[in-house]
Every structure is written in C-alpha cells, then in structure tokens.
Amino acid sequence: MKPAIAIEYCPKCGWMLRAAYMAQELLTTFSDDIKAVTLIPSEISGRYTISINKQIIFDRKREGRFPEIKELKQLVRAVVNPGKDLGHSEKKTV
User: Fold this and answer.
1) Three-class SS of residue 89?
2) DSSP three-state, residue 6
3) Exposed site from 6, 31, 32, 83, fewest CB < 10 Å?
4) Tell me: the pLDDT tens digits for 80-89?
5) Do the beta carbons of residue 33 and residue 23 sit within 8 Å?
6) Range of the domain at 61
7) What is the CATH number of the domain that holds 79?
C-alpha cells in the first residue's frame, strides 16, 4: 500500500497557503509513489508538522524553522522511494 502524507498546520498563524503549496509540490513529485497528501488544521497554536503514515518527518518547533521544498522532497523520498531521482532538486549549488 502506498504511504499517506499529512501536513498539520496552524490556521490561526496563516499557514494554510504554505501547507497547500507544499502539498502541491509533493503530489507533483511523488504522484506515483504516494496515496494522498492531507492538510490538517491543527488545534494547537504554532504547529506545523509533516508526517508519513503518522510518523513525523519534520516538526517546525523542533527544527526552529520551516522546511525548504528541496529538503522536504529529500525527506519524503527517503521514506517512499529511496531510489527516485529528484531532477533539479538534486543539483548541488555552488
């Protein structure tokens, strides 16, 4: 069964658009590898977590920041399809 990704965000903080953008990026990149990306408005202020099958792979409070899209795609790939080429997201910047 394909894994499901959940993005739990604080609606009071105005993070819904950020969550929707990240969901769109993940759906575009991993369309063949995942079952769904679900957006979950959190009842906990300041929450922004991303999980795969209920296992948190990124927590804004723990990290002290939001993930970069490139970083998020690499975190997701490590779980859902480790051999997947991420194209331009793989290129190292000089």
Assistant:
1) helix
2) strand
3) 83
4) 999 999 987 6
5) no
6) 4-90
7) 3.40.30.10
